Amino acid sequence: HVQLVESGGGSVQAGGSLRLSCAASGYTYNRNCMAWFRQLPGKEREAIAAFYTAGSDTYYADAAMGRFTISLDNTENTVSLQMNALKPEDTAIYYCAADLKFGGTWSRAPDFRYWGQGTQVTVS
Question: Is the separation of the CB atoms in 111 and 101 below 8 Å?
Fold first, then answer.
């Protein structure tokens, strides 16, 4: 049973920083990709960043480029998202996702198998 548990959300003033973490458990095989998405009420889930484990490649949405950094700690089975220079428009629930389906792409939420419960980020 795969479980993803996010932590690190909270409230911060514009220009501040937060670090989100996602602890993965229950894996019996190497996961191919872990990613962060965010979602506003009534909106579709939006891809923010992804880490492909095979080559340690990272990908970022335009909204995250230059401000957010995704990293993976294999020993701790944890993927983190360092968010700097936060803006009010970054306010959302942030979700961790893992394991792309065959042929899937990191920017599409339906292509991921596993999801965390989400953590709220509020920037004022």
Answer: yes
2 CB contacts (<8 Å, ≥6 apart)? 24, 25, 26, 27, 98, 99, 113, 114
- C-alpha 64/C-alpha 41 separation (Å) is 20
* pLDDT per position as a tens digit, 89-107: 999 999 999 999 999 999 9
- For the stretch 30-64, pLDDT in tens is 678 999 999 998 899 999 999 998 888 999 999 99
Cβ distance 6 to 21 under 8 Å?
Answer: yes
Tokens of 35: 């990613």
Q: Tokens 């506003």 map to which residue?
A: 40
Handedness of CA 76, 50, 97, 118 (dihedral sign): positive
